[in-house]
């Protein structure tokens, strides 16, 4: 008979978490894609109305992350690195969780100090969660 003791553990104790390095590389890929998308969007939008580039970038940044994570659990960067976002129970995340984790990502990106705080929170977390993951009840895992 097989040992089922592993299956009796909660999901978050049975998975391998994505490292800060993988998460960082995925973020770097995503930020390049967001910049390119925002630049194209600005060219198209400016035909009709004038929108400050920073507002457009923010909308593209949040939209990109929320839509892809809520729909598929991963952005293109996460897909390339083989990682995904799931709930602490292992299910697909909700749109609400995607919004929570990505709005906190925007706030955290405003300064190097806040980025370092995010890295420290991941390192200090039992489940490698940054603040947005904790509030959104999500984890980033391989898969």
UniProtKB/TrEMBL annotation:
It is a multi-pass membrane protein. It is found in: Cell membrane. InterPro entries: Pra-immunoreactive, RDD. The keyword Membrane applies. GO terms for cellular component: plasma membrane. The chain crosses the membrane at residues 24-41, 47-67, 106-123. Pfam families: RDD. The keyword Iron does not apply. Keywords: Cell membrane, Membrane, Transmembrane, Transmembrane helix. Residues 17-137 form the RDD domain. PANTHER family: PROLINE-RICH ANTIGEN HOMOLOG, PROLINE-RICH ANTIGEN HOMOLOG-RELATED. This is Putative membrane protein YckC, RDD family. It comes from Natranaeroarchaeum sulfidigenes. The lineage of its organism: Archaea, Methanobacteriati, Methanobacteriota, Stenosarchaea group, Halobacteria.
């Amino acid at each position: 008979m097989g040992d089922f003791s592993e299956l009796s553990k909660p999901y978050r104790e049975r998975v391998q978490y994505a490292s800060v390095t993988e998460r960082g590389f995925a973020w770097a890929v995503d930020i390049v894609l967001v910049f390119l998308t925002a630049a194209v969007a600005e060219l198209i939008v400016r035909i009709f109305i004038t929108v400050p580039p920073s507002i457009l970038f923010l909308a593209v940044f949040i939209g990109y992350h929320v839509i892809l994570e809520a729909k598929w659990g991963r952005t293109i960067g996460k897909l390339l690195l083989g990682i995904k976002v799931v709930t602490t129970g292992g299910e697909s995340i909700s749109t609400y969780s995607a919004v929570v984790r990505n709005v906190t990502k925007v706030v955290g990106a405003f300064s190097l100090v806040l980025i370092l705080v995010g890295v420290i929170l991941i390192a200090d977390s039992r489940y490698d969660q940054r603040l947005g993951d904790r509030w959104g009840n999500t984890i980033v895992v391989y898969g």
